Automatic annotation (TrEMBL):
Protein name, as recorded: DUF3304 domain-containing protein
InterPro entries: DUF3304 (IPR021733)
Organism: Rubrivivax gelatinosus
Acidic residues bias: start-end ranges: 158-173
Top-rank taxon, per record: Bacteria
Region (Disordered): 125-173
One Pfam entry name: DUF3304
């Protein structure tokens, strides 16, 4: 019996990681008329991605980084010009700076890609380029003034924004 249970216990222990909670910050690198209204990392809401200064607690990540780690990122893109939105979901490799696991930065890029980086460096929130930060540098001129929803006024009889396949496209509905 011991010979059967011992391997099972070893497999279970090897498959479990100690986890830590890290704050999540979304950084929206999209065109001015697009915005990330909501996003989630492994089911934890990060809320609206912006310029990198806002933190939400907490995503659960393994306490020790290792190659091959991924996170599931789900996000909604609103196209304020077309007045539509789309939902996206992707398993994203978890990148890491040297040192302990730090804040989780989720970058939403103009080409539709997403980068997830855990790092103690806070380059995106400082608005100053930091060559030590491995992710995209902030586009301060765009991100600091980006508020596409401020020009939008919903009319009383206007329907909610419909969901489309790809809100990042700029063609008419």
């Amino acid at each position: 019996m011991v010979f059967v249970l011992l391997p099972l216990a070893a497999c279970r222990a090897a498959g479990q990681d100690d986890t830590i909670g890290v704050s999540i910050t979304g950084v929206d690198h999209l065109a001015e008329h697009l915005s990330i209204q909501d996003f989630w990392v492994n089911g934890t809401g990060g809320h609206q991605a912006g310029g990198g200064g806002r933190k939400v607690c907490c995503a659960s990540l393994p306490a020790e980084w290792r190659p091959g780690l991924t996170v599931k990122v789900t996000w909604a893109v609103t196209n304020w010009k077309r007045r539509v939105y789309s939902m996206y979901e992707r398993d994203v490799p978890l990148e890491h700076c040297d040192g302990p696991m730090g804040r989780l930065w989720v970058h939403f890029l103009r080409d539709g890609q997403v980068r997830a980086i855990t790092c103690d460096l806070s380059a995106p929130g400082t608005w100053e380029p930091n060559p030590e930060y491995p992710g995209p540098q902030p586009l301060a001129t765009t991100l600091l003034r980006k508020q596409p929803w401020s020009d939008y006024e919903r009319q009383p009889d206007e329907p909610e924004f419909p969901e489309v396949d790809n809100a990042m496209e700029d063609e008419a509905i």
